[in-house]
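Internal ticket - ligand job 653, WTA:
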Amino acid sequence: MSDGSVFGVYPPSPEFAENAHVDGARYAVMYKDSVETPDAFWGREGQRIDWIKPYTKVKNTNFNFGEVDIKWFEDGTLNVSANCIDRHMITRADQTAIIWEPDDPKTPARHITYRELLEQTCRMANVLKAQGVKKGDRVVLYLPMIPEAAYAMLACARIGAIHSIVFGGFSPDALANRINDSEAQVVITADFAPRGGKKTALKANTDAALLHCSDKVKCLVVKHTGDQTTWVDGRDIDLTAAMADAKPYCAYTEVGAEDPLFILYTSGSTGKPKGVVHTSGGYLVYAAMTHQITFDYHDGDVFWCTADVGWVTGHSYIVYGPLANGATTIMFEGVPTFPDAGRFWEVIAKHKVTQFYTAPTAIRSLMGLGPEWVEKHDLSSLKLLGSVGEPINPEAWNWYNTHVGKGKCPIVDTFWQTETGGHMLTPLPGAIPTKPGSATKPFFGVKPVVLDAASAAVMEETETEGVLCIADSWPGQMRTVWGDHERFQETYFQQYKGYYFTGDGCRRDADGYYWITGRVDDVINVSGHRMGTAEVESALVAHPKVAESAVVGYPHDIKGQGIYAYVTLMKGEEPTDALRKELEAWVRTEIGPIAKPDLIQWAPGLPKTRSGKIMRRILRKIAENDFGALGDTSTLADPSVVEDLIANRMNRV
Ligand code: WTA
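stdout (structure tokens):
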């Protein structure tokens, strides 16, 4: 095999391959089946989960712009909560389903068995029913990383309600937008969310959000820290007390395979975040299958995905995939550096974690603090490591491999998206030799194609570069944008006709390995979190002193990309450091701390074409501190603007 990178090729060890669910030979056969005879392949794989009424149709999908329609297992019925809990009761009632590791290591961890998970989920489902929540209704979850978050997801699924989780780092405005867009009638929150020794006032944020929502919205509050909060009688309900009073059993509701399971808002290149809709049958099959095969999960393993349930990674690989497989899954409330930089490794040693799945940004920040934090802890339980969220740079890959995996654990670099429901490109640990920095090969059923960005021609040669599209549907694919099927088609199927467009660029090497090169649209990836530059821009221009703004990403050592904002002030406004701070705080309240610009440059003018279009390519170059080759600037209305921007650039590395 050709090298493809200076960092070498790492084949699966024979011992790992021997015990793995899928080895190299099997991957080849199964992959061929999955793309050549998808009905037969997925007809078999669909049996991973329990159906109330079995499906007779498997795949019914259309990628043609104007007629996009995606259905899997469409005439089958099921219940997702029953699949994640009830069906394990015969064999696993006393097995730990969730290990909850609190923010403060002095607070004892909790082991929640499948029996307890059933009881708590049922209690919460009964509380929701008592509030009038029915099949198809939306429930917004704005919660810390506590077991109640999993109970709430599964309680919604149990009664056929659609959950929409809003990450606890989002602001009241962002929360209100999501409640309103989904027309939710219930919000579930908690008093406070402890993280890294600090507390976020979730209830107070929810109070602020609800000022902008229908007064019919009810607020269920988990008493987590027990600290005092404000209380609106008639609207707020003590969920902890209500669950204690509720009946411990609730029958599950039969739903269709294509009934929505959840909505998850995510950033795109234009407009407001869109509500990505995932449905019940196909999503669960895909989450369960990828969890088992990519991570080579076996009975008795302890699986830890460090994501927050507010992101898709938490949906698929903390809750739905692992629980559908009857796994033991860890839910961690804290952060990697609290109370010290050894926390991840301490938790791995404490709970004897076998598979560990995290993001490159976390690895890079811990790498900077030195290997001694890792070496203090016994990591001998680990069998496999995973990475997700952005390309992993080979230096971080090597550190992860050497210091965490001790050279013995395969690393699965999983490329996927909120829209895809589960892994798209990933090494299978017993089957595919890895190369640091490459997400390697497609998962079963996934047909990647590389297109020329400009001409949309399919690049047939093995070794090539272009934009990454997918030629056919897979069961975990999103079905629509909530309330806006047109936007769904325009975003993913319009630019490259007949294909699903990922928004990412990629390179394919001589061995057919895929290397993601990053987003080709106006989406940036900050610490593995997706951010639309348009969102940050509209937050900035909403400030009374801001006339205009353009936001781009720039390379950042820890975060992968940082947020670089060019800001033109209203006439007569002074560009001061105080105003810079004010704008940072403004964006935090408009969107949330994750959207705070890292660098703000005062721009007397922005480079525009004569037709008034901002030339982002130039702004990106200046932000990257790479202004030697700005390309053609002759179409600019006023070329002198660029000189000023270069002279006053903020990123002088
Ligand atoms: C990026 C997270 C390279 C990519 C699951 C994608 C990656 C976006 C990888 C989706 C990876 C995710 N290698 N890039 N292994 N994983 N990405 O929706 O740009 O939050 O389009 O889903 O993250 O981010 P999202």
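Auto-summary: The longest strand covers residues 546-556. The chain has a mean pLDDT of 96.
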